[in-house]
Design goal:
The structure holds two protein chains of two kinds. Chain A is an alpha+beta fold. Chain A contains 20 helices and 22 strands. About 15% of the residues of chain A have low confidence. Chain B folds into three domains: 120 residues, DNA Polymerase III, subunit A, domain 2 (DNA Polymerase III, Chain A, domain 2, Roll), CATH 3.10.150; 110 residues, DNA Polymerase III, Chain A, domain 2, CATH 3.10.150.10; 110 residues, DNA Polymerase III, Chain A, domain 2 (Roll). In chain B, helix 1 packs antiparallel against helix 2 and helix 5 runs antiparallel to helix 6. The chains are: A alpha+beta, B alpha+beta. Chain A: Belongs to the DNA mismatch repair MutL/HexB family.
């Protein structure tokens, strides 16, 4: 008898589950994707004990026809595609047909469902992948999947489940990402009978963002929107001073699918540039819309990674969008609270004011949520995503109703204006230096708000921009090397590199092939003098091959300029005369970016009049 | 404007005013020296808003011309560049021609063109009414500053302590400085043009240290003027302005002990060297503590740094009066005071291990330096 045999279904499904359902949150992800694909408007997730004893996902979607219910639990059974051609045009979240059987293989699943025109629903119970019960049942339209005792028959997996808090956090995170990607749907998460998240599903990205990230971050968020013929980007990016220590709050969604992408993350960081210090990551939630043929989501069963066919284009566009958005409206950091809840009375009134503010904020932003949104999943799939269409998709995604595309730019501008009005450092206003305090900070006012300006950081920024301007104007010529550098490269890469010979020579970098697999660098840019030439040449050539442009030495030089600016800037702990303070403020007002020092720290903190009035309880 | 001037003369004037050029400022014109050419003399001004220095150069009657004024005018030039340029010029004489805001500097066959700044933007020096003034030889003022300015506080926690108290109660002028761990006093009898009951001001220690660098060490008289918030010191052709520190200087009248239990006399040079040797091992601990064991037979100077090692040295005092005593103190304070008293035979008077001791010349109470000891640990 042969040794090879086909695995039993249960074993195969358990193995598949290993890939798809690695932790309770992954099951939640699969189930809410099913719900979204079923056209649900409201999705409720209930979890107990980290999702291990109970996980329940209820939706008001289309439901499953009674005759299909059993099929749904077969592996590779799906309603979402029929042939391979469909895969590339896919607009639904799921398609592999693995979710339900995988979950059912490692838990006890009860599914009840009713389609709109059926009089009664049907309930099925599976245990370890086996159907144990099927009964008709009365239930609301939609589907409810109840997963009990997850991993009860896969002890190995159970062992790897972390603390219940961790699992709970992952569940909330999964739903929050889905909610951010689909602000037109209402999500509610209940963990151990406590409501952990509730998004309204009013179609407004802002309202979803507020529900997820909180009011403070939402207030500091800027609206990002950019379209190109192939792509539409829309989302919220938060002012740099709220940057986090990890990438975990850089959220991306492609065509309504939350994804993780280091490349997109780096593109956002490039857009923030020196606004955030190294090792800090801004909070962003950005949705990309594009023709599904331009992406491949079938990279991993969990589908949190996607491949872009033109990743460089997408990233460049994203960087540009972030840059533009920040230039338009970076806010001077606003002091969050002058004092931390000193008295209970204080806390009480504060809460009162929070409520009041939230409601006013949401009415202020109601432009974003003008009308109930249509979900793109129900839209016709366009083979060619035109500019207008892309924008429409993007706006739909964030709930701006676009029945008449003509009005969109108008709405958009209004939104941008309201953001600008509220957030932007009022450059047109003349700051008046009131005093220097602690030999560290200049206190200034503009008649409306108070500014605390870090004398060193502000002067550093002034000098940085001045020096950078000088260096950019400086003549750069090729500096010949007495002993040329040799760099070993793959023959194919040398071919590629030689295409950029002229471009590199423009920067003063000259090289030539030097025997097999070696190139010889004969000239380097004169501004490299005194720097680590070998490393720079290596980096520059690597950049040429990867990015198709010379960037390495620019960064290096920027570092040099930062250093110089830092050294020449007035130090903390030095007295400043009124004349010097005035000169500094005047110079600041002429800067491209007066709000952070070149190291990424803020230069100014704004305390608004209304904040002061609130703190002193003049207003509530 | 057009002048020809002796390089050394210009370089010296620039050197003088450069003390009031800030190293870092947000107002670029303050990096400049305001150069004015009048029919009879030239005047250089620098003012960093804290201190201001103005100096005048006159032509002399030497057979060789020192300054030749061809055309009057004014300009503000970057002081550091100008000083560096003038120092390096190849020829004895320098010619400066200014048209609009550009200065051409020629010497020998070298030609520099320097971009200038608009004199109208240069800040005005403070006005000080020349009524309240004291006069004294320049070297006396130097000794007043040298004996006290080093003891001023460097931290801004108590701003008045960063300055030297200038206190004139006829006929005595006292300079007092303290960083609250030590105190230095020096006093002289000063002549005044008018009579004042009392004249007090707090002069920034930093300003006095800069003044020290440009005061001539001679018998030449200097005049000191005190206005509301400004000090003006004039000597020769130079005027030195400084901001004054506002506030009330602490009352020190009861700090100085009048009795003692142990007194020694030492040679400051020998004692300084011993303490410097002991301090080598005291560097590690924060306040550089060294210990003195005062005995009738000899004085022991020790320092102990648990991580590094210890040092002991004995010296013979010139004289010893009173009881044996052990005391610990910051070596730097002791060295500063001894350095100031370098030209005297020094008498040190102690009261107890926990109370302040004073250093002063053997047979005078001026100048006087007081140091607070460090508390003795029980087993160290």
């Amino acid at each position: 008898m042969g040794r090879i045999h086909v695995l039993e279904d249960l074993v195969a499904n358990q193995i598949a589950a290993g890939e798809v359902v690695e932790r309770p949150a992954a099951a939640v992800k699969e189930l809410i994707e099913n719900a979204i694909d079923a056209g649900a408007k409201k999705i409720q997730v209930i979890a107990k004990d980290g999702g291990l004893t109970l996980l329940e996902v209820q939706d008001d979607g289309s439901g499953i026809a009674p005759e299909d219910v059993k099929l749904a639990f077969l592996r590779h059974a799906t309603s979402k595609l029929r042939n391979l051609g469909d895969l590339s045009k896919l607009r639904s979240l799921g398609f592999r047909g693995e979710a339900l059987p995988s979950i059912a293989a490692i838990s006890k699943v009860t599914l009840r469902t009713r389609i709109a025109d059926a009089e009664e629903g049907v309930q099925v119970r599976f245990e370890a992948g086996q159907l144990v019960e099927q009964t008709p049942v009365g239930c609301p339209k939609g589907t409810r999947v109840t997963v009990q005792d997850l991993f009860y028959n896969t002890p190995a997996r159970l062992k790897f489940v972390r603390s219940l808090q961790t699992e709970n956090a992952h569940i909330v995170d999964v739903v929050a990402r889905a909610a951010m990607a689909r602000p037109d749907l209402s999500f509610r998460v209940q963990i151990d009978e406590r409501e952990a998240l509730h998004t309204l599903g009013d179609g407004s990205a802002f309202s979803a963002f507020t529900a997820i990230q909180g009011r403070n971050l939402a207030k500091a968020a800027l609206w990002l929107s950019l379209t190109s013929p192939d792509y539409a980007l829309a989302g919220l990016i938060v002012a740099p001073e709220f940057a986090r220590k990890s990438r975990s709050d850089m959220w991306f969604a492609v065509n309504g699918r939350p994804i993780r992408s280091v490349a997109l993350g780096n593109a956002v960081l490039a857009g923030y540039s020196t606004l955030v210090p190294k090792g800090r990551f801004p909070v962003v939630a950005i949705s990309l819309s594009m023709n599904p043929t331009l992406i491949d989501v079938n990279v991993h069963p969990s589908k949190t990674e996607v491949r872009f066919s033109e990743e460089r284009d997408v990233c460049a566009l994203l960087t540009e969008a972030v840059k533009q958005t920040l230039e338009k409206g970076v806010a001077s950091p606003i002091v969050q609270s002058l004092q931390q809840d000193t008295a209970s009375v204080m806390t009480h009134t504060k809460e009162g004011s929070i409520v009041a503010e939230t409601s006013s904020a949401s009415t202020g932003r109601s432009l974003l949520a003008a009308k109930p949104a249509t979900s793109w999943s129900q839209q016709v799939v366009h083979e060619q995503v035109s500019d207008k269409k892309a924008m429409q998709v993007a706006l739909d995604l964030f709930g701006v109703h676009s029945a008449k595309p003509k009005i969109i730019p108008h709405v958009d501008r209004q939104v941008a204006d309201s953001v600008k009005e509220e957030e932007k450092f009022p450059l047109h206003r003349q700051l008046r230096a009131v005093a220097q305090v602690l030999k560290l900070v200049i206190v200034a006012e503009d008649g409306e708000d108070i500014y605390l300006i870090d004398q060193h950081a502000a002067h550093e920024r002034v000098l940085y921009e001045a020096f950078l301007g000088k260096i950019r104007r400086r003549e750069n010529y090729p500096l010949p090397l007495l002993v040329p550098l040799t760099i070993e490269l793959h023959a194919a890469k040398i071919e590629l590199l030689m295409q950029y010979e002229v471009q590199a020579a423009d920067f003063g970098l000259r090289f030539e092939p030097f025997g097999e697999g070696v190139i010889r660098v004969t000239h380097v840019p004169s501004i490299w003098e005194g720097l680590d030439i070998a490393k720079l040449a290596h980096d520059a050539i690597y950049d040429l091959l990867e990015e198709r442009k010379v960037t390495a030495f620019q960064n290096e030089i920027e570092d040099k300029v930062i250093m110089r600016a830092c050294k020449a800037a007035i130090k903390a702990n030095s007295t400043m005369s009124q004349m010097e303070m005035d000169a500094l403020l005047e110079a600041m007002q002429k800067l491209d970016n007066p709000f952070t020092c070149p190291h990424g720290r803020p230069t100014a903190i704004r305390i608004t009049r209304s904040q002061l009035e609130r703190e002193f309880r003049r207003t509530l | 404007m057009r002048i020809v001037i002796l390089k050394s003369l210009l370089s010296q004037a620039l050197q003088t005013i450069s003390k009031a050029i800030p190293t870092r400022t947000t107002k670029p014109i303050l990096y400049g020296v305001y150069l004015e050419v009048f029919a009879t003399h030239i005047q250089l001004t620098a003012y960093d808003q804290e201190i201001g220095i103005q100096t005048i150069v006159h032509p002399t009657d030497d057979p060789e011309p020192t300054l030749q004024i061809e055309q009057t005018g004014s300009i503000v030039l970057h002081a550091k560049y100008l000083l560096d340029i003038v120092r390096k010029l190849p020829h004895k004489l320098v010619r400066i021609d200014v048209t609009d805001l550009t200065a051409t500097i020629r010497s020998g066959s070298a030609t520099y063109t320097l971009n200038g700044m608009d004199p109208r933007e240069y800040p005005h020096l403070p006005s000080v009414t020349e009524e309240m003034s004291l006069s004294m030889p320049s070297n006396v003022l130097i000794s007043l500053i040298e004996q006290t300015a080093f003891a001023t506080a460097t931290s801004e926690i108590r701003p008045t302590l960063t300055g030297v108290l200038f206190s004139f109660v006829e006929p005595q002028l006292r300079f007092i400085a303290s960083d609250s761990h030590r105190l230095s006093i020096h006093s002289i009898y000063a002549e005044t043009k008018y009579s004042y009951d009392k004249l007090e001001a707090i002069i920034p220690g930093k300003s006095l240290n800069e003044l020290l660098k440009i005061l001539p060490d001679s018998e030449e008289f200097t005049d000191i003027y005190i206005a509301d918030n400004q000090l003006l010191v004039t000597f020769g052709a130079t005027k030195f302005y400084s901001r004054l520190i506002e506030g009330q200087y602490p009352d020190i009248s009861r700090i100085i002990p009048t009795t003692w239990r142990t007194a020694i006399e030492v040679d400051p040079k020998q004692f300084t060297e011993s303490i410097e040797r002991a301090a080598l091992l005291a560097r590690e601990n924060e306040n550089q503590v060294i210990r003195l064991y005062l005995r009738r037979t000899h004085i022991e100077v020790t320092s102990n740094s648990p991580d590094i090692g210890k040092v002991t040295e004995t010296i013979d005092p010139i004289s010893f009066e009173g009881d044996d005593l052990q005391i610990a103190c910051n070596a730097k304070f002791l060295l500063d005071a001894l350095k100031a008293l370098n030209n005297y035979q020094v008498r040190i008077e102690f009261t107890s291990p926990g109370s302040a001791f004073i250093l002063k010349p053997t047979n005078s109470d001026r100048p006087l330096h007081l140091i607070l000891p460090v508390r003795f640990g029980p087993n160290t």
